[in-house]
Automatic annotation (TrEMBL):
Catalysed reaction equations from the record: [thioredoxin]-dithiol + NADP(+) = [thioredoxin]-disulfide + NADPH + H(+)
Residue span, FAD/NAD(P)-binding domain: 9-288
InterPro entries: FAD/NAD-bd_sf, FAD/NAD-binding_dom, Ferredoxin-NADP_redctase_2
Protein name, per record: Thioredoxin reductase
Gene Ontology molecular function: thioredoxin-disulfide reductase (NADPH) activity
Annotated SUPFAM superfamilies: FAD/NAD(P)-binding domain (SSF51905)
Lineage of origin: Bacteria, Bacillati, Actinomycetota, Actinomycetes, Micromonosporales
Highest taxon above the source species: Bacteria
Pfam families recorded: Pyr_redox_2 (PF07992)
Record's keyword terms, sorted: Flavoprotein, Oxidoreductase
Length: 338
């Protein structure tokens, strides 16, 4: 069944994760017309639970999103499962074209489309992602506590990642893979009891649908029950290119993001971002909070615009702005049969 869409919304939210739904909820409660367009591919889909989220510890990602959508709809917001093809400038507003060919106008955009994790090219790694292959100790550390954990050197923070996971287990192996630690880093790993294994990792060893070890190119098998990997994180924001808004290198060196100020406002007028699309390290709670902050900033921006228009209409009742407002009122009356 095809959802009925309005021609125009105050705000179109692109992305229906924690950031997008929190922003949409705030805007809907502010009596704004809101459309959430969600592609249905959340980053944390493989995870068995959301952790570190106050009062919702361990909730399944799917349940969290279902609750969020229901809350947004409860305040009159609209949520659809579609993919955005492009966002473009449309007069004094913006246009969002879906991949099914439909298009809607928006006075403002809130982009919360998240990021994609690019994993090293090691056979078996992607299949175990979100299960025994993990990345964040604060998201998964408790679940793998006291187990045999490996850390695959795959980025500039891999040594830091190994030192962090040492907090949850005293059995940590650092796989140097293609990047040996520096002398200073090797010393840090050694004093924390973290063994360094040289050689390229060839594949993961899986027995009865469980990770049992990491196999090196020379055939050596190192027994492990979990493997931490620092991914390269890239913002899902290709649809913003027509607006001249493209991902930029993140200062951490961990990937690419859409830069923005503290409220989520980007360099493109009318476009805000929140969550992992701009903050690569944001967990669910932080992303949700950022969505709320951006939504409040968007609403304030709309209020300021509406006030300027009201002042202009008051000062000059025959201005183009006044005529446009009258035309909109007349069109609304006709739509309602008045």
């Amino acid at each position: 069944m095809t959802e009925q869409l309005r021609e125009s919304y105050d705000v179109v939210v692109i992305g229906g994760g924690a950031a997008g739904l929190s922003g949409a909820l705030t805007l809907a409660r502010a009596r704004r017309s809101v459309l959430v367009v969600d592609a249905g591919a959340p980053r944390n889909a493989p995870a068995d639970g959301v952790h570190g989220l106050l009062a919702r510890e361990g909730i399944h990602p799917t349940e969290l999103l279902e609750r969020g959508r229901a809350e947004v709809r409860g305040y009159g917001g609209q949520v659809i499962h579609r993919e955005v093809g492009a966002a473009t400038r449309d007069g004094d507003g913006l246009a969002v074209t879906l991949t099914d060919g439909r298009a809607v106008r928006a006075r403002r955009l809130l982009v919360t489309s998240g990021l994609a994790d690019e994993l090293p090219d090691v056979p078996g790694l992607r299949d175990r992602w979100g299960r025994e292959v993990i990345h964040c100790p604060y998201c998964h550390g408790w679940e793998v506590r006291d187990r045999a954990i490996g850390v695959l050197a795959s980025g500039p923070l891999s040594v830091h990642q190994a030192l962090l996971f040492r907090q949850w287990s005293d059995d940590i192996v650092f796989f140097a893979h293609a990047a040996r630690p520096t002398a200073e880093q090797a010393e840090q790993l050694a004093v924390r009891g973290i063994r360094v294994v040289d050689g390229e990792v060839a594949a993961l060893e899986i027995v009865e649908d469980r990770l049992t070890g990491v196999r090196l190119r020379d055939g050596q098998l190192v027994r492990r029950e979990a493997l931490a990997v620092a991914t390269r994180m890239v913002a899902r924001a290709g649809f913003l290119a027509p607006l001249g808004l493209r991902p930029a290198a993140h200062p951490s060196g961990l990937g690419e993001h859409i830069p923005a100020d503290a409220t989520g406002r980007t360099e493109v007028p009318g476009v805000w971002v929140a969550g992992n699309v701009t903050d690569l390290a944001a967990q669910v709670g932080g992303a949700a909070a950022a969505g709320t902050v951006a939504a409040a900033a968007i609403n304030a921006d709309l209020v300021a615009e509406e006030t300027r228009q009201a002042v202009a209409a008051y000062r000059d009742p025959f201005s183009p702005v006044s005529e446009a407002q009258v035309s909109e009122l007349v069109a609304g009356d006709r739509r309602h049969g008045w």
